[in-house]
UniProtKB/TrEMBL annotation:
Gene3D superfamilies on file: Phosphoglycerate mutase-like
Key word Lipid metabolism present: no
Source organism of this protein record: Gluconacetobacter sacchari DSM 12717
CDD domains in the record: HP_HAP_like
Protein's UniProt name: Phosphoanhydride phosphohydrolase
InterPro entries: Acid_Pase_AS (IPR033379), His_Pase_clade-2 (IPR000560), His_PPase_superfam (IPR029033)
Length: 432
């Protein structure tokens, strides 16, 4: 079942709590030696990361058609990693290597033994395959690690079991859940989201709601259909908040890329503070769609089973029929923000950062750590590792042994931060 607190949070759109926190606050840092882990040994690790900084997936001309505003040119085609993004991701991977050398999972000197590290990237986009290669080169430099994936463009069940045909979408359940979300949004849109949409409306198109061609970002949501997705079509939301989420994310990407205020926000002052105000729109859309249990659970069913099997020391067969064997100590999956969102729902995870208004920003990584405790038992800890907004903007390496590592309660393990291995399980949907 979906853990009570996670399901209730979704049902009540308690995203407001998480979204309000994007303007400040944070969770406790996952330091290398908490009291509960005294004398424990880190044995296994599964990392799931978002790719590096990319350009918007829509060209500037297309964004202008949608918003009526000019958008900056990028140094790469739509949806591709930028050179700046490559540098920032390399710094993140170096910091991951340093963290897990310090925690004893990787050798303090020299290279990991053959077969102890495996890196698998989503083949759907160049940015994920390239991110896997960058992380392989930077996690343990000069050790010849390599990332693998399916052929470019192939649907990979590890990252989207629905698109790959490995799971089925319950369309009536999704349609009902989205309909309920529309009703709740109409009745009680969270205040941080209202503020975000109003700020974006004033910035992008102050008179957009009075024009027939918009954009009206403060308007309501409606249900539509995406006939080419997931083979038989999938219901999805459209409307002002969904469009605002894309605008806010593209502005965050421009800031992270190092662009000037005129390029990020058409000359609006203090663009970093502006991002903290508008990015709740992006997190809200994720809560309504990507973190919707009826979508996230089947979509992430293959990856979540693989995470549990890897932590338990069982072999996992990859989509190319290769195998990650029990000798693997560190396994890294290079995916998307959607990958992080679906695992958050599946394991009942939630987080925010004091220095990063986007909880699934580029390079953000979930770490599933298996520890051998002093009493002989084994337990799993989940840590979210990230780069702050200014660290991304300057491509600085984060401190993953300090403030850039956050220990998470595991909702499917009754909120424990150290979950007995045998009790780690994914959420399930309640009966229809």
């Amino acid at each position: 079942m979906i853990p009570h607190q996670t399901y209730a949070r979704w049902r009540l759109l308690g995203a407001a709590l998480m979204l309000a926190a994007t303007c400040g606050g944070g969770a406790r840092a996952a330091t290398p030696g908490p009291a509960a882990l005294a004398g424990a040994t880190l044995e296994k690790l599964v990392l799931v990361s978002r790719h590096g900084i990319r350009s918007p997936t829509t060209a500037p001309e297309g964004l202008k058609a949608l918003t009526g505003r000019d958008w900056p040119a990028w140094p790469v085609p739509p949806g591709q990693l930028t050179p700046h993004g490559r540098a920032a991701l390399a710094g993140m991977a170096e910091a991951l290597g340093a963290r897990y050398r310090r925690l004893g999972l990787l050798p303090a000197t020299g290279c990991p033994a053959p077969g102890t590290v495996a890196i698998w990237a989503d083949a759907a986009d160049d940015r994920t395959r390239q991110s896997g290669a960058i992380m392989a080169a930077s996690l343990a430099p000069r050790c010849g690690l390599a990332a693998h994936s399916l052929a470019a463009g192939q649907a990979d069940p590890f990252f989207n079991a629905l698109a790959a045909g490995a799971a089925t979408l319950d369309q009536p359940r999704v349609t009902e859940a989205l309909g309920q979300a529309i009703t709740r949004d109409r009745a009680q849109r969270p205040p941080p989201v209202r503020d975000a949409l109003a700020r974006l409306q004033a910035l992008v198109a102050p008179d957009g709601c009075a024009r027939p061609d918009g954009p009206c970002l403060t308007g309501g949501l409606s249900l539509s259909w995406r006939p080419l997705s997931w083979r038989h079509g999938a219901p999805h939301l459209k409307g002002g908040p969904v469009q605002a989420a894309t605008i806010a994310e593209n502005m965050m990407l421009a800031y992270s890329q190092g662009m000037s205020p005129r390029q990020v926000a058409w000359g609006a002052p203090d663009d970093a503070a502006l991002l903290a105000t508008i990015l709740p729109a992006h997190a809200y859309a994720a809560m309504l769609t990507r973190r919707l249990p009826a979508i996230a659970l089947p979509r992430g069913s293959v990856l979540s089973r693989a995470v549990i099997d890897l932590l338990a020391g069982r072999p996992v067969t990859l989509p190319d029929h290769g195998t990650i064997g029990p000798a693997a100590r560190l396994v890294l999956f290079a995916g998307h923000d959607t990958t992080l969102d679906m695992l958050a729902t599946i394991f009942g995870l939630d987080w925010h950062f004091a220095d990063q208004p986007d909880p699934t920003a580029p390079d953000t990584t979930l770490a599933f750590e298996r520890w051998h405790l002093g009493d002989g038992s084994r337990a799993v800890r989940v840590v979210v590792l990230h780069q702050g907004l200014e660290q991304l903007r300057s491509a600085r390496r984060p401190d993953l042994l300090g403030p850039n590592a956050t220990e998470l309660p595991i909702g499917t393990c009754a909120g424990a931060t150290l979950c007995p291995l045998e009790r780690l399980h994914p959420a399930t949907l309640p009966p229809a």
